[in-house]
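Incident log, structure service

09:12 report received: a user says their structure output differs between two submissions of the same chain.
09:20 pulled the input from the user's history:
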Amino acid sequence: MIYQPFTGKTAIVTGSANGIGFAIAQHLVAEGAKVVINDIDPAAAAAAVTKLNAGSEVHSYAFPGDAGDPEFIKRMVDFAANITNSRLEMVVANAGLTEFGDFFDFTPESFTKVVNLNLRGTFFLAQAAAKVMKAQGSGGNIVLIGSNVGERAYMNLAAYGMSKAGISMLAKQLTLPLGPLGISVNCVAPGATLTERTQKEEPDYAGTWAKLNPNNRVGQPEDVAATVAFMLSPASRHITGQTLLVDGGWTSYGPSPFFLREIAEDRPVTNGQNNTTAKAAEAIKLKQMVS
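09:34 re-ran on a clean worker, output below:
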């Protein structure tokens, strides 16, 4: 028998036309949920829904638009709350924007883009969904998608890292107003994950991160999806306000790809740290890894 803990429940998953978001939606559909697919690109959202509704039953619904816009968020939540024979009890704030840039040159325009989607969108999606869950009186589960970069510094991602750290704190803060209502709020923080986007960023993305992660593998979208599904399931009913890293152990030990690249090319390490005996020993080890 297929385990379907989400039958009769609706989920909103923002940024879910592809990558991690699509994997989360696919996992939830397989476990019985109705899923609202959100993406800024209407064609991409429609294509994702076509894949998820490949059978005879309608499992998913496209609702494209800007997940950083509070007015749009209200319309999307209202749509999800009115899907027949189902209740909105699950929300995954997955939509996010990464903007690389040197701290000294980072522009107000780039900063605003990152904060509007990552922080404002996440906050107001949680707020709008929680209002519906409160009115229903049946509780619910909210998962915010953070990042390992919200836990550990990473070169040229100051604004992004700040926004993701803020999302982790939001999960803690929301335990106070939402806990008494039976609504859990947690943050799932992926590390390096092989998606369509990350493959374009780095030709050997999987190979690079397999070297950097202590478990010797790169993350897959399904790794994050399974974790999110657990956080949405009855099995996690006594977990709230937590941030769970899904990063192969990178935040515990792994160096950055910048560090690895500099060592491989016999260049001085310029990651804002002085070379030390320990750093030299690490350099020898990393040279062996990439040789």
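09:41 both user submissions now match this output. Likely a transient worker issue. Closing.
09:42 reviewer note: The first strand starts at residue 9 and ends at 13. The two ends are 48 Å apart (CA to CA).
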